[in-house]
C-alpha cells in the first residue's frame, strides 16, 4: 500500500541518497538527544527510491586524498560515521594508497601533514621506499615511474547497496518516514522562504527544507530562482566571469572478473590503489599506446559482481553545464562508458600487476552509466540558499563526505556553527576563496 504524503513536516529532506539518509538519521538522533523532537518530525522524499542515483552506482571509495585541505576534517567525520556500524554499512577499512611521479611530492607532503595533524593516520614514501612499500603489499607490483606513495590507514570502501540498506535501516529505527516515488515538481516560496513543496503526490508544508539531490541539484537550484552563471574568485588569485554554476561529468567505472583471489602478500583484502602518472603512457600487452597518461583506481569488486573480480575506474569526462539526467545511470543511453574504457583499465592493471596479465577478455560487459553535477570549484557547497532551505551539493564526493549529515544535524539542532562546515559556504566564490583554479583538469581535487 502506497504511503500517503502528509500535510506537513517540520523537516523535509529531498533526496534519499547517502546524504539525505545520513542527514535524516543524524537529525533524528540530535533532536531526541536535545529534547527537541524525534524522527517523526522528519520525512525524506525521493522521486524514485533510496539509492536510485549515484549513491547506488558508486565505487564506494572512502579516502582523504585531497589537495583541498578543508576536505580532510570532513572525511575524518565520514570515517567515524562508517564505523558506527561497519557491518550494516558494508564498510571495509582496508586503507587507500595513492601513487604519483616525483613532481607531485610537494603536494603529497602537504596532504600527509594535514591528514596526520587531524589524526587521519597516513604514511608517505618517496623514491625507492615508495616502490618497496608497494611491492611489500603486492609482490608482483610493477612500479614503472612511481616515485611517491601515500598510504592512508583509515580509508577503505563501502558496498553501495549495503550502505543504502544500512542507512535506510537507521532512519527507520529512528522513526523517520521515507517516501519513494514522490517527485518535487515546484516550491512555494513566500517572502523568500519555502513554505511548501508541490509533488506528484500532493503538497506538503515544511519549516525547514534540506536538499540532497546529487545530479538533480541544478534542476532544483534553478526552480528556486538561483543563478546558473556567476563570477568566481579563486584562492590562487584567478578569477572567472560568468562561469557555469554547475558542470556535469560522466563517470567511467566497470568490473573485471578475476578468480585470483585478489589478496595482499599476507592474504588480506588489499587497499584501494589510485595511480596518477601524468607523464607515463599506458601501453597494452601488444605494445600499443592507448593514452599518454595513467589515471586509474581499483579494488575488490565485492557486492558489485556475481563472482570474484575487480572494480575500478579512470578519469571522468567533462560533459558541460547541461545534461539529460533522466533516465539515470545504466538506463541512460547517452552516458555509457566508452568502448575504449575497457581496453584502458585492463591495460593499466596489466602494466602494474603481473597477476593481471591477459585479463582483457574478463572485462564484464554490461551497461555502465553515471553522471554527476559538480560545483564551480569541484568542492561541495554546504549552505543555506534561502533562510529555511539548506543545500548539500556534494559535487560527487559521495561516500567520502558521509559525515556532512552528522555535522549539519548538529549545527541545525544546537544552533552553533560547526567549524568543519564553514569552508564550504557558497559565499566563498564572491569572496575570492574558491578552491583550486579555473583550469582544473580533474574534478576530484
Going by helix content, strand content and strand pairing, the class is alpha+beta
Q: What low-confidence regions span 5 or more consecutive residues with pLDDT below 50?
A: none
- For the termini, the CA-CA separation is 45 Å
Number of beta strands: 25
Strand content: 25-35%
Shape assignment: globular
With helices defined by DSSP (H or I, 4 residues minimum), what is the helix count? 9
Alpha-carbon Rg, integer: 22 Å
Q: What is the share of helical residues?
A: 10-25%
Please state the average pLDDT score: 95
Please state the second-level CATH architecture of the domain at 1-90 and 155-231 and 377-445: 3-Layer(bba) Sandwich
- Characterize the main sheet: 8 strands, mixed
CATH homologous superfamily identity of the domain at 1-90 and 155-231 and 377-445: FAD/NAD(P)-binding domain
The CATH topology name of the domain at 1-90 and 155-231 and 377-445 reads: FAD/NAD(P)-binding domain
CATH class of the domain at 1-90 and 155-231 and 377-445: Alpha Beta
Salient structural properties:
eight-stranded mixed sheet, alpha+beta, FAD/NAD(P)-binding domain, 28% strand, seven-stranded mixed sheet, 445 residues
Amino acid at each position: 500500500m502506497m504511503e500517503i504524503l502528509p500535510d506537513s513536516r517540520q523537516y523535509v529532506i529531498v533526496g534519499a541518497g547517502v546524504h539525505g539518509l545520513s542527514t535524516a538519521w543524524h537529525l533524528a538522533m540530535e533532536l531526541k538527544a536535545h529534547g527537541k523532537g524525534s524522527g517523526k518530525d522528519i520525512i525524506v522524499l525521493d522521486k524514485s527510491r533510496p539509492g536510485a542515483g549515484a549513491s547506488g552506482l558508486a565505487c564506494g571509495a572512502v579516502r582523504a586524498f585531497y589537495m583541498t585541505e578543508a576536505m580532510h576534517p570532513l572525511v575524518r567525520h565520514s570515517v567515524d560515521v562508517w564505523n558506527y556500524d561497519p557491518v550494516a554499512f558494508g564498510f571495509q577499512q582496508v586503507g587507500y594508497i595513492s601513487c604519483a611521479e616525483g613532481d607531485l611530492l610537494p603536494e603529497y607532503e602537504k596532504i600527509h601533514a594535514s591528514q596526520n595533524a587531524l589524526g587521519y593516520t597516513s604514511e608517505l614514501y618517496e623514491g625507492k621506499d615508495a616502490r618497496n612499500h608497494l611491492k611489500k603489499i603486492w609482490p608482483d607490483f610493477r612500479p614503472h615511474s612511481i616515485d611517491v606513495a601515500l598510504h592512508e590507514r583509515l580509508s577503505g570502501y563501502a558496498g553501495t547497496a549495503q550502505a543504502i540498506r544500512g542507512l535506510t535501516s537507521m532512519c527507520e529505527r529512528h522513526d523517520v518516514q521515507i517516501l519513494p516515488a514522490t517527485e518535487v515538481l515546484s516550491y512555494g516560496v513566500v517572502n523568500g522562504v519555502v513554505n511548501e513543496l508541490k509533488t506528484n503526490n500532493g503538497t506538503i508544508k515544511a519549516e525547514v527544507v534540506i536538499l540532497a539531490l546529487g545530479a538533480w541539484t541544478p534542476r532544483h537550484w534553478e526552480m528556486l530562482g538561483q543563478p546558473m552563471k556567476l563570477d568566481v574568485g579563486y584562492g590562487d588569485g584567478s578569477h572567472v566571469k560568468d562561469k557555469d554554476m554547475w558542470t556535469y561529468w560522466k563517470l567511467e567505472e566497470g568490473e573485471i572478473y578475476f578468480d585470483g583471489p585478489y589478496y595482499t602478500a599476507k592474504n588480506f583484502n588489499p587497499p584501494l590503489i589510485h595511480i596518477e602518472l601524468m607523464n607515463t603512457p599506458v601501453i597494452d600487452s601488444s605494445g600499443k599506446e592507448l593514452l599518454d597518461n595513467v589515471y586509474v583506481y581499483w579494488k575488490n569488486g565485492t557486492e558489485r559482481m556475481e563472482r570474484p573480480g575487480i572494480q575500478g575506474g579512470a578519469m571522468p569526462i567533462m560533459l558541460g553545464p547541461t545534461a539529460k539526467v533522466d533516465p539515470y545511470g545504466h538506463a541512460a543511453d547517452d552516458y555509457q562508458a566508452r568502448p575504449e574504457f575497457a581496453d584502458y583499465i585492463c591495460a593499466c592493471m596489466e602494466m602494474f600487476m603481473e597477476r593481471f596479465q591477459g585479463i582483457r577478455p574478463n572485462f564484464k560487459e554490461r551497461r555502465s552509466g553515471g553522471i554527476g553535477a559538480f560545483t564551480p570549484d569541484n568542492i561541495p557547497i554546504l549552505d543555506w540558499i534561502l533562510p529555511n532551505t539548506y543545500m548539500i551539493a556534494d559535487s560527487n564526493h559521495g561516500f567520502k563526505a558521509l559525515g556532512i549529515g552528522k555535522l549539519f544535524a548538529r549545527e541545525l539542532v544546537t544552533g552553533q556553527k560547526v567549524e568543519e562546515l564553514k569552508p564550504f559556504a557558497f559565499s566563498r566564490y564572491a569572496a575570492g576563496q574558491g578552491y583550486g583554479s579555473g583550469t582544473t583538469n580533474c574534478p576530484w581535487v
